[in-house]
Each structure stands twice: as C-alpha cells, then as structure tokens.
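Re: Re: token formats

Sure, here are both.
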Amino acid sequence: MSFAAFDAFFTGDARRHLLAAVEMALSEDGPDLTSLAVFSPSDVLRARITAKEDTLVAGLPVVPLTLSTLGALAACDLEFPVDEGARAAKGTVVCRMSGPAVALLKSERVMLNFISHLSGIANLTARYVAALAGTTTRLLDTRKTLPGLRYPEKYAVTVGGGTNHRKNLADMLMLKDNHIDRAGGIPQAMAALRKAYENSMEKMPPVEIECRSLEEVTQAVAENPARIMFDNMDPPTMRRARALVPQGIETEASGGVDLDAIAAVAASGVDFVSVGRITHSAPTADFSMQIESIPQT
C-alpha cells in the first residue's frame, strides 16, 4: 500500500522527529521479558488491528516503521485493508500482520498508542472542520502538542481536514504580547525584527502580529505583516477588527474557541481560526490488536 500523504509530510525534520518518537516509545517499554521467556525466536504470530469505534484512521504507517526500528520488518507480512486517512466503521480490520512473535508483541502497544492518539486528533479536527462548512474560514492547529509528538500530531490534523500553523518557532516570526510589551509597542517590535534581518531581508520568515485591541490592529496594519491575529476578542470586536485589515493581509482568530463558538468566529470573516484543543484535548480513538493464531508446543 502507498502512504503518499504520510510520506510527503514526514520528510526532513518531521521524519527525524517521528523516528525519534518511535525509538523512544520502544525504548521506554524496555525488553519484553515475558514474551522472550514464553516464545521461541522461531515462533510466528498472525494478528489484526481492529477499530472498536467509528473513526478516521491515522497512523497506519507507524506499523512498518515500528517493526523496521526493531529490525523485524523483513520477516513480517503486512496488509492494510483500509487506506490511511479513510473512515472505518466499528469492527473494521485496518491492518493484518504476521511475523516473529516477540517482535509483534513488543511492538503492539507502541503501534496502538500512535494509531489511537493520531486517529483521535483526526476525529476531533474533522468535527471542527465540519462546523466551518459553508464558510471561507480554515481551521489551524497550534504548538500546543505533546513533547516529542509535534509532527505526528500536526500530521493527524491534516488527516482530519485541518491546516497546520507553524511547526516550529522558525517557520514564522510571531510578535506576541510579551514581545510587543518588551519592545514598547508594535512599531518598535517590528523595527527590532527588521534590524535582525537588515542584511538578509530575503531570509526573513513571514511575520504574524498578535493584537489585543482595535488600536493594536490599526498599528499592525501599518506594518504590513503576512497575518494579523485577533487574540481573545469577542465576535463583535472581531468583526470590527476584520474590517480594519485590507486585502493582502491574512487574519486569524485565536483564544478559547470551541465547537459552540467557532461558527460565530467564522462569521466575522477571518481567514483562519486556530484551536489548541484539537491536539491537546483530543480523546483517543479505540483500536485493539487481536492475535489470530498462536504456535502450539
């Protein structure tokens, strides 16, 4: 099976961090002493991973990555009846595998943890995306992710139909309240950014300015950033703020947006709404691995 979207996402730093996360998950489990005692190196198991609820499926490519990290992939046969990113009904088998017993049992919890966690994020993201249907507002994630899982979680957001905000602090220069207050205002903070890049302006990442008031929005517009964020504004204030921003500057709403509030936020006409809870508060989806055959002594 081709995992084109997964492979396209996980290149460079993203793939490096993913592999590190898989390696750490296997390492923190330690050796599977129970399986090593009970199964011989030649024992082969057949198993399946099943969705125990209706769910989007995200993270299937972690199965071969985990087995590869253990050095067992070449000895395994894998089948994926469901496409990565597809929706699976309760009871659907999403992966079948056979291979060395010790390797499959050592990998079981790591594979399930990734698939369950990423599928849960995709599910919650899809609910927010559905709430934006009929608008031009797009859903953004944030950097409110679990340590070490930034890239897998942001990948899961794309499976659910969301859009990634900056993946790290270098993707975009974001002037937040602490930067603005330290510099003495938005004009001064922008001047500090431009000074930092005065000899290499072509290398300067896009700038987003966080605004807490209409006055700050007016100041931000004068600096012509790539995007202006309306931080914790109520819908009436947000509509007024949106009217101050000319075409050519993107707008983003942020701060405490939930499913009940997102439609009103989108009605203000913002280009994006960022929601931290799609990663930091997504419930896991329920998957399990069942052994189909066990070698007999």
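Second one below.
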Amino acid sequence: MNAGHRRAVGLVLVAIVLAVGCTLAGRWQWGRHVTVDAEIATVEANYHAPAVPIESVLPHLDTPLTDAQVWTRVSLTGHYLASGTVLLRNRPVDSESAFHVLVPFQEDASDGAGPVLVVDRGWIPLSTTQESPSAAPAPPTGRVTITVHLRQQEPLSTRSAPPGQVQTIAIRQVLDAGGIAPSVTAYDVFGGLDTETPAPAVPITALPAPSTDPGSHLSYAFQWWTFAIGALVGFGRMALREARGEGPGSGGRPAPAPRRVPASVARRGPSAEDVEDALIDAQLGP
C-alpha cells in the first residue's frame, strides 16, 4: 500500500468517526424533542382541565402519579399547617433568584385528621437578610378549599440546608424540615397551588405556568445529521483524490506525458529556412 492509499484509508476512518458521532448527537437531540413534545402534550391536556377530587386520581396514599397524570388539577378541603412552612432553595423563577414556599396542607377526613399534601404556594425573592419561612406570606387560616396541579416528588437530596429549608421537594424531607411528626400520613406527591378559598390576607406571588416551548431540539437533530452526511461526502472525496494520487500530499496532479513527435517530422530534417538562418549567423559571427 503506497502513501496515497494510506492517507485515503485515514480519511475514510475520520469520516466514519465524525459521521457516527454526529449521528449519535442527532439521535440524542431527537430523543429530547420526543420527550419535550410528550411533556407539552401532558401540560396542554391537564393544566386547564376542570378540577377533580384528589381521591379520584390518588385513591390511596401510595398510588403512584403517572407521567400522563402530571399537572392534573385536583381539589381538596382542609387546613394549612402553617407552622410546618419550609423554603425550597435555589429555584429561580423567570431568571430571578427565589425561594419556593412549601406548606403542608392537611385534608379533612370523616374520622378526624386526614393525610397531608405538600403544597408549593408560590415564591418569594431571594433576600440576604430574611431566609427563614417567616419571611413568606402566611396562608389563609381555618378551613380552606384549594385546587392544585399534581406533581411527582423529587429525589432525596444529600446536600445540607439551613433550618427550615430544603434542596428538593422530597416529601419526607420537607415534612421533617417543617417539624411534622413522622406519624402523620402524607401523599407521595406535591401540588402546585392554583387557587385557595378564602384568599390569604397577603397574597403570594404565583408560580408561572409550565412552558410549552418545544425548544430547538428538532432543528439541532437535523443539523447534526446534515453534518454526518457532509463528513462522509467531504472526506470521501478527499480520500478518493488521495487514492488516485491527486491529493495535496501527492505533490499535485501528475505531470503530463511529453508530446510525441511524429516519425515523419523527425525524419524530415531541418527546413530551408533553418539552413538559411544558420548561414547568415555564420557570416555575421567573428
């Protein structure tokens, strides 16, 4: 194998590696597009739907909330456990640093106190002077009817947080941070507040609606796949030129073959004009 062929093989390998990498990147972007598209469909189906009793969605405390049920609007009546208010750290809202305000809500039950649902009531701006739950507007007192959008709880966090604060909405961590007794039963989900009746004395800034922007994942996927095709075509052409000995590493195109003089012209000898010019040059010479 000569040098040109070796360079051609190297270019083909580079083309394959680039094409595979671009294809995988495009597949990842396509997967993100499919996931986001499904999330948007769930939001559009559930977010503005009429509220239903929470028991119709979660008949048991340990009933899992499926992906298709996320953002479902449910209603329940009970009272807030305001003393168990907790702040959720590091959750910017519309690019503004903020704390989410998490308050346990205990549902009424015929046989006494019912289960607790952690409610994300809204948010307050991040403050360097007040980072305690007392900085949040208080929820309404007494018997309250609320509607919330159901959300799946988040994974437990191993990061520490100041007293009265949490890093994630993991139900048991939130209740523990709020001083709620472990014996109190709770739903394994939380709710984003939609409405509460009666209204609180001091309103809290509501959470924004979930985004339905699909982003640029689909266009990025096609861009990566275009790059994959371009790598195969571009490096493939370069490899073909090297294999033919026409590449830059081969010293350019091969020199053209010398022009062959016909035999009849070679046998003819010098013409009369050539002989005359030679005689004149001899006479003028020294």
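The radius of gyration is 39 Å. Residues 3-46 form the longest helix (44 residues).
- S.
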